[in-house]
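Lab notebook, bench 4. We co-purified these components, and the gel suggests they stay together. Before we commit to crystallization screens, I want a quick structural picture of the whole thing.
Request: model the full complex, all chains together.
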Amino acid sequence: MREHSNYSRDQLLHGVTMRDHHMLDAIYDESFPSVRQMIYMNGGSEQDARDVFQEAMVVLYRKIGTPDFTLTGSVKTFLYAVSRNIWLKELRGRKYLAKDDLVDTLEVENGEDYEFSLMQHERLTLYRKKFEELGPDCKRILKMFLNLIPLREITRSMGYKSDQYTKNRRHHCKAWLIRIIRDSKEYKELHYEQTEAN
Amino acid sequence: MNKLKQIDAYLSDALTAEQKREVEIRMAKDPGFAREVEMHREVNMAIQDDDVVEFGIFLSERYHGNAFERTPSVKLHGLHRFMRYAMAVVIVFLFGVSGIQLYKKIYQPSAFEKFYTPYHADLVTRSGQKINMGVQAAYMLYDEGDYATSSELFKDYLLTHPDDMTAHFYFGLNAIELGLSEMAIEELLRVEEDDSTPFSLHARWYLALCYVARKDYQKAIPYLKSLSDNDSVYSVQARKLKRSIAI
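Here is the predicted assembly.
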């Protein structure tokens, strides 16, 4: 499938993963104008459009990295639909309008679960934000476990006395992380929104 | 085993087949528990999401939040180069010699573009030296220009070898190529501060370039001064760069 002047969809997606300047420029050139137009027509500014589009690019990047990744439509449609959802949410937050009031500049085909991609992105962004609030030792130990570094190596690298202590420390860190996520206002809001969506 | 430990063990594939089945049966019967497992799975994903965070920073740095005001790439791309030549020809045709001067004035490349060249050196592994295959691949990929993959491998390697200054240096160089100047500065500062590494000198030069790219000349100048005051391989370039950014 050839969707931009020079590159196929697969080339563009590979380019996003590799942060290839040519491909990224091609995506911006092709996809940003319709998003900007949509945001202009729905009460947003140039800066809003840039922020929203960048967020949609990150959603795309994250989606490409998932093991069961498939994209049935074009990159342009994906970015437009995700940007649209981001902007809708922003407008609802500002209490400006209901869903049906939004003026579109591009027809979005059915089939792709754009809303799911965005909701998952929002959850992961919140989890990451809360992870960053942990102390440096907790962050390091959780990362090392997930990177499958051997337990003995983690104990040595952290300067702990025993493997058992390392395991306990890791569990405390994880439990603390889950707690600060659940206690956060953002989580409660997301949880509410997503229950509503289901 | 408490619930948290059970979920963690399940997600890291550390349960026996029977224990795993128990968890799966419970997930099927109890949607609340299934949601909790899913949440833990996503939390684990988020912890490992360094590349997503870096991608966001990369986009901000490259596009400055503006799709049509891009930060110039290190290398001139074909179309840009062609456009510049075409403009030069038109200007020369229209204005003659004064046109050339005007072109030079308008299209002067940034100081960073003029002075930056990627670092290349042959890394020799002596016989008998213990080789870490991951890091060897990372050096090779840097040399081949696959900066994103090289960067990933260095990141993993540095988790277990935080004192390897050579790896920090190359990790910093990858960050420059990927447009992540903040990360590059953080890595290069670490190398520059360690006098025992032969890369300390090179780190100072690339640090200066990073600051120049960010137009933070106050921070670049001390490095350029120290490089131009000695007989290092960078002394001539450092003097020229210092002159070119002098206000």
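Chain B touches chain A at residues 4-5, 8, 12, 39-40, 42-49, 51-53, 55-56, 58-60, 62-63, 65-68, 70, 73, 77, 148, 156, 159-160, 162, 178-179 (CB under 8 Å). Worth comparing against the SEC data before the next meeting. Confidence is low (pLDDT under 50) at residues 65-80, 124-130 of chain B.
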